[in-house]
Amino acid sequence: MARMSVFHHACTVPLARAIHARAMSVACSGTATVTAPSLNKKKEDPQVLLGMSEQDLQQLALDFGQQSYRGKQLHHLLYKRKVKEIQDFSHLPLAFRNELQDAGWRVGRSSVHKAVTAADGTVKLLVKLEDNRLVETVGIPVKDDKGSVRLTACVSSQVGCPLRCSFCATGKGGFSRNLKKHEIVEQVLAIEELFKQRVTNVVFMGMGEPMLNMKEVLEAHRCLNKDIQIGQRMITISTVGVPNTIKKLASYKLQSTLAISLHAPNQKLREKIVPSAKSYPLDAIMKDCRDYFHETSRRVSFEYTLLAGVNDAVEHAKELAELLLKWGPGYHVNLIPYNPIEGSEYKRPYKKSVLAFSTALESRKITVSVRQTRGLDASAACGQLRNEFQKTPLLSGAEDQQSQSELLVVA
Ligand code: SF4
């Protein structure tokens, strides 16, 4: 896509006592900075505590005439105690709570509109945002050999998605807007609350293209890592490929995994499956991935959805191996047998095709994993559950579609 899009969000601090005349910046993995709430905010933007760093919360406390340790308490209440309402911040003086509320501050947690549990324990949530829009988030518990449970949260980064990959339920459901950092972070907290345990892994593989919302995704990443204490290596950012963004992401030197949704071993087939690939040739993506590996020393993972009769032949596997070997070491392929969605022309591949495909890759020294399909009975494909509810959408079509002309070009 020649012109790719990202919204630039801002929070606001309109009341005199809450104003602090400095541009706060949030260290992102110690190397790059992402601008946090500043003075140049639109008045109508929400003032949300969730997503703020300890340093910012301390400054906020000072701005309200409190001592800075009140900011540490706020941090504890938000991220350890996971309190959802300012009035329930019982550690804080009532007067401070009231002042925060009167100044328009809120925690920034949304309600869960619907939760669907599959037989294997996977839970898909529909989170209802402040503007009544719905996003999906999925909690995936996996028991390891020692009996301890790893809990992965698969989070959304946008409401819907503008990229319209041909096999994807989210793409078919249309695009509304980017999520703000707290709307990403709260998905993880909602999963923790539901499972009553800590999330160990986060994958940005839910609704939306994270690289079209990079600023908020990076700020959410900072919060998940520094405030909620999920290791960077436990976080995966997945992209279908947006020009100029892999390079930009590499410059932050995150220790998280970059996953590229490839789905085809050549440009022609890829364009059929992923229409946005027209603007980002395969060779350019592979070069950016090689540079990403050199810059971060982090292995790039390739996601490959197997569509029966489309991209699942052994010949495709051989071509994929050739492509990956041409661009260097450090690659891993994650095969995803397609999850059928209503109205799609694609079909789920046979088990023997999946096995033949992975064997062909392995015999060419490519490391492979096959993603176990989880929660098939809980509308497992990304966007499916939301689409079911959007058949009777909470908003009218006109309200729900943000104008593409509002999209800005990625720097
Ligand atoms: S697969 Fe990902 S990038 Fe493609 S339409 Fe779906 S959500 Fe968007």
Automatic annotation (TrEMBL):
SUPFAM superfamilies: Radical SAM enzymes (SSF102114)
A GO biological-process term: rRNA base methylation
Keyword annotations: 4Fe-4S, Cytoplasm, Disulfide bond, Iron, Iron-sulfur, Metal-binding, Methyltransferase, rRNA processing, S-adenosyl-L-methionine, Transferase
GO MF terms held by the record: 4 iron, 4 sulfur cluster binding; metal ion binding; RNA methyltransferase activity
Subcellular location as annotated: Cytoplasm
Domain Radical SAM core: 147-377
The organism's place on the tree of life at top rank: Eukaryota
Cofactor: [4Fe-4S] cluster
NCBIfam families: rRNA_mod_RlmN
Coiled-coil features, chain-numbered ranges: none
PROSITE patterns, per the entry: RADICAL_SAM
Organism: Fraxinus pennsylvanica
Gene Ontology cellular component terms for the protein in this record: cytoplasm
One Pfam family here: Radical_SAM
Keyword 4Fe-4S appears in the UniProt entry: yes
Protein name: Radical SAM core domain-containing protein
Alphabetized InterPro entries for the sequence: Aldolase_TIM, Elp3/MiaA/NifB-like_rSAM, Methyltransferase_A, RNA_MTrfase_RlmN, rRNA_lsu_MTrfase_RlmN/Cfr, rSAM, rSAM_sf
Annotated HAMAP family: RNA_methyltr_RlmN (MF_01849)
Metal-binding as UniProt keyword: yes
